[in-house]
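Suppose a colleague, Dr. K., hands you the sequence of a protein chain of 129 amino acids and asks what its three-dimensional shape might be. Before reaching for any lab equipment, you can write down a predicted structure in token form. Begin with the sequence itself:
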Amino acid sequence: MKLLDASVLIGYAQGERAAADYLERNDETVFGAPTVVLSEVYTGLFRTTDLGREEVKAKYGWVRSVPFTDEAAVETAAIRSTLSSRGQKINASDTYIAGTARALDVPLVTADGDFEKVDDLEVENYRDQ
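The predicted structure, expressed as tokens, is then:
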């Protein structure tokens, strides 16, 4: 499994060629998204469309919902601590996303360069593929 960040899902929904190409090249891969990512993309859909709750959920029905677990919480705390000790920061929701990926030991697919600051996180920039 690979986890998708909001940048991929939003890019795909907006017809971004790089996002579509990446997903097509990896069509046999199981894709998941942390629940915080799904919340971000669902918020965007509610703001920009007239879709109802079930339609919003169905839009990304091909993506497995990955919950935030105790292990992800530990990884998130470790990430925040490490970044803080270096004087670095990333968006708070991104620490939850990175913590989820590290807890599962799976790659995170994104276009957000901030994730490169996180140790022991395999990051795939779909725009560089």
